[in-house]
Amino acid sequence: MDRAAEDLTARARIRDAAIRLFGERGIEGASIRDIAAEAGVSSGLVRHHFGSKEALRDACDHYAKDRMIQIGAELTQNGDLTGLDPLTLHPIAFPLQLYIVRSMMDGSETATALFLEGVDAVEDWTVSYGINPKDRRGYAAALAAIKLSVFILRDQVSKALGEDITTLEGYNRIGQALMEVFTIPLLTPEQIRRSEEK
Amino acid sequence: MDRAAEDLTARARIRDAAIRLFGERGIEGASIRDIAAEAGVSSGLVRHHFGSKEALRDACDHYAKDRMIQIGAELTQNGDLTGLDPLTLHPIAFPLQLYIVRSMMDGSETATALFLEGVDAVEDWTVSYGINPKDRRGYAAALAAIKLSVFILRDQVSKALGEDITTLEGYNRIGQALMEVFTIPLLTPEQIRRSEEK
DNA sequence: TACTTGACTACACGATCGTGTAGTAGTTTG
DNA sequence: CAAACTACTACACGATCGTGTAGTCAAGTA
User: Fold this and answer.
1) Which residue of A has its CA nearest to B149?
2) Number of folded domains in chain A?
3) Domain membership flag for residue B21
4) Which terminus of chain B has fewer Cβ atoms in its 10 Å neighbourhood, N or C?
5) pLDDT tens profile B25-84
6) pTM value?
């Protein structure tokens, strides 16, 4: 994804092109012929390497999941951030996130499993962080969904901001805005108490 | 949408079926033949009434937008809530929201305009409510996107909760979880200050 | 050298898509 | 009564889709 296209094997180029086009246009919106053209190969080669469109999506699912987990692991161990500054990380991680969300919407089990693992992680995190919502599972699910919302509606959010959020600058802006959503309490304790009485 | 199907004109049944199927499967995922079958008419009649698939989506866009605005207006004037209790409102509004989000993702200008109007409304609301984020526009855009995220990821969120959020009970649960996200400050003021120093 | 294997292309297939055309039945209108 | 119009169906069209088949070419191997 980060290396020059001509240095990659045809199989890798097909997979990268599939992740890119699937993520941008949706699974149904990107044909095998589109992906083959994007990768610079024949459509038959896509079938030769992956068997079917479904199997291609499966391969993309597992690759994207592994890459995201790998990136997450490298990010958490703060000691070694070699080559993981935002400027190089963003162009790699953003298309992966985009693809995963699209695959989720298409009903992929692998992508959905990744979402469920994310909810589990957020749930554990609320415990260790001392956050005690009344509905912890619901809270974690909402937080996980929110993290993905800007990817899905990136065109609309970009238009609302007058700034492309697929760029690093735009992405950082909406990321900080999301942080403000999480840190500014919308309701006063008094209002919360009153809404509970109803 | 709420009346018995046999009491509606064929045109209305086609439109309702289109909103339902477009919302569930996406624009590309629902064919004109599918919609015609769902409405109990021939595929030719869809074309007769709406001209093309694009024009059908346009008609659905405007209908959904008008209905949502109408519902919103009836909800805000608290005096008259005739027939607008959640039990009857939910089955009407939920498919409309689902469709609007799908249409947005498909690049519909009408649906995107509705999103931008929503962002404007949230922005105005933060002003009158005394909420002052550093990036007010970004804050409003994030909040508007969040409101729609659970519709898109409804299958994943439902699976995470073990409860179908398309039902009124499930929808209320995730709605309250979202409220908790907005009301529980994630970071302490100390942590916010520290993150700003970086 | 002869054989096998894997990467790769060209091409044809049936299905499905949106769309176009022709025509029927019932109602309205002059 | 005849013409016109509207709601509606049946059917065929070209395009595109995922897929299947056959074959080329280069590299490895016995």
Assistant:
1) A149
2) 1
3) no
4) C
5) 999 999 999 999 999 999 999 999 999 999 999 999 999 999 999 888 887 775 555 556
6) 0.89
